[in-house]
Design a protein that fits this description.
31% of the residues are buried. The chain is built from 8 helices and no strands. It has a domain of 174 residues. The mean pLDDT is 77. It is an all-alpha fold and 255 residues long.
């Protein structure tokens, strides 16, 4: 069965919508269906598709139903891959906050994350909110949308691209953990040194209740260090976002 040639714009819109929905499924805050209604996600995907669809090359569009169905699946997979790589990079900042919670003494009472509808540790939630704020304040989301739009200039998801996808994802996982440690590592090192000092004081003066005073002291030290180090987060986030957008473009053969 052959589709009518006048339906090419609708085909381009459906393909762009499929990739947009796949992309939004893994990009915050749309990845959390409990916080963002499905109608809002679909409407956002439709808006992105309306922007991208007119620029799609008509000669590359499918004209039969079986080919169209296969292309829709490939578009969803392409959107998932692009969104995952970018989201993985920018999540390194919130992961650094989660690492700090393990040594900062701030994990007694979890807090609610309104975006993820979860109860992450306090510092992890704080860094996550900082990331969202910076993405809006510095037009980071516009860069992400621009990168999504430019992804249509590549071939998209193919069997030949699976090797490249695996290599990029494994490399980005390494960058994710290294970046999280680089962001939170200096603070973690100071907090660990503070614990060592408290242990030595407790050893030197056993009669003093060092650990009773050590917990609030460590919490205060963690808050002061985070306040001093938070100024470096915008630059770290910009580097991670640039890396994520570059790797997303490299997934499917774009330089």
């Amino acid at each position: 069965m052959t589709l009518d040639v006048h339906a090419l714009w609708l085909i381009a819109f459906l393909l762009a919508l499929a990739r947009a929905l796949g992309w939004l499924m893994v990009v915050q805050p749309f990845a959390n269906r409990g916080a963002i209604p499905v109608v809002v996600t679909v409407a956002t995907g439709a808006a992105l598709a309306l922007i991208v669809a007119p620029g799609l090359e008509r000669s590359r569009l499918p004209t039969t139903v079986p080919v169209l169905a296969g292309d829709l699946v490939l578009q969803v997979l392409t959107g998932l891959a692009i969104g995952f790589v970018v989201q993985l990079m920018i999540s390194a900042v919130s992961a650094a906050g989660t690492f700090l919670d393990q040594v900062g003494g701030l994990t007694i009472q979890p807090t609610m994350n309104p975006i993820g509808v979860t109860e992450p540790p306090l510092m992890g939630n704080f860094y996550r909110q900082v990331v969202v704020l910076l993405l809006f304040a510095t037009n980071g989301y516009l860069l992400m949308i621009e990168g999504f739009a430019h992804s249509f200039s590549g071939p998209g998801f193919t069997l030949e691209s699976t090797r490249t996808i695996g290599t990029v994802v494994l490399t980005d996982l390494q960058v994710f953990f290294v970046s999280a440690l680089e962001i939170g590592g200096p603070i973690m090192a100071v907090l660990f040194a503070a614990q060592v000092v408290l242990a030595l004081v407790s050893r030197a003066a056993p009669q003093a209740n060092v650990w009773f005073l050590g917990m609030p002291l460590q919490v205060l030290l963690a808050l002061v260090l985070v306040a001093l180090a938070i100024s470096a987060v915008p630059n770290d986030l910009a580097n991670l976002l640039t890396r994520g957008l570059g790797d997303a473009a490299r997934l499917f053969g774009r330089p």
